[in-house]
Prior knowledge:
With 394 residues, the chain is of the alpha+beta class. It has helices spanning 64-75, 78-81, 83-90, 115-119, 184-191, 229-238, 249-264, 269-273, 282-288, 293-306, 365-368, and strands at residues 4-7, 14-18, 25-27, 37-43, 48-54, 94-99, 104-109, 130-131, 133-135, 138-141, 144-147, 154-159, 170-174, 179-183, 202-209, 212-217, 266-267, 277-278, 290-291, 312-316, 319-325, 336-339, 342-347, 372-374, 382-384, 392-393. It folds into two domains: 4-21 and 193-393, Roll (C8orf32 fold); 33-162, no CATH class.
Amino acid sequence: MSTQTIFNSNEEQPNPLGKAKWVILAFILLFLSAGGAFVVYKKTQLSSARVKEKISSNRDPYSAENIRDTVLTYLAQPHFAGESFESQILGKAHLELYIVDKRELFFSLPDKTNLQDEVHSFVIDSTKIEQAKEDGGRLRIGDYSLAKSPAKAQFFKTEVDNIKIDPNLVLQFSFQRGIYKLSLRELIDFINNQNIYGGRLRADTNLKRNGMALIFYNHGAFVAKPDEVSLKRFAEELLKNISATDKDAREKRIQRLLDFVADEIQYDDTEALSNAETLKRPNEVLMTRKADCSNKAILLASLFEQIGEDYLLLYCPKHITVAVPQGKFSMDNRLTFFWEEKNWVVAESTLRGFQIGKTRVVEEDILQQIEYVQRPREKNSIYNSSTKEPLSFR
């Protein structure tokens, strides 16, 4: 599917509208169904390893072992964790390969670093580390080798059981408008899907394209529930200087959250141009600081949940966006939608500086072609905007 683009009519700068893909879900870190399995892909200079691990539902989710395994899984999938996540866990070390079946971890370190000094924060016993031997410009451990470079001057292996993670660690992700703080217990709750709505993943449109059933994915399943601690804390920080007594407080709060997602979450062309959909939980969007239209919408919706604001997810051709009740917002840009006997206005998060009700966009017809409507708290309910009939799920 082609990428759609919208422009601020006054600034002549390209802004990707993005696309919501309707083909296949490429990768979800943890399936939403109970007892889902991890599917981790770790691509490095060493090799491309596909590994699977099933998390036991019988052990304490906040045990040191489970915290360690969760953190390692995120480290093995940086697309969902981001560079800052790794540096807060490993310092200057970099996880090169995680072989779950063998419970082996391979790390690299840059030049001019002392291995003992760098690993003491996450390795229990440094004597159980196997260091690589140099072989023709490559660092080799058994069947695995790594091209030596200033960024990867040391290469070593250890076992999963030799890794320690401080359970009291609070991860911090800094933005211009505030700092998103996430404890490891809160991270566990996210990856166990305790704080997102969840539900069935594949919605059936009852339509066919090229003889195949046309389906799309339930973005609302990834939206955070109200009172998710880390997001609520962050939303309060973003909104701290808007007085509750301000007559326009509601509109200012909504616009402020939209400004954050539109301006400070980088639009991810890799996600947008992929032939398959990658959906993130809201914490993963904040951890990576980038997203396509799908994941920007998930984050914005999750922030609205924390302030008790009503909203809809609107599925448009090759795009998904968010709408809020009109209230005091204008309707000058004609990006409006009538639903449940009231007007809704689009809060478009892929366009920097987008002002609700005011900002005009090129190809506005995309945002006016609302095909399906969803309120995530109504679990497993997505409606055809024309017929008002609910879609079935596969």
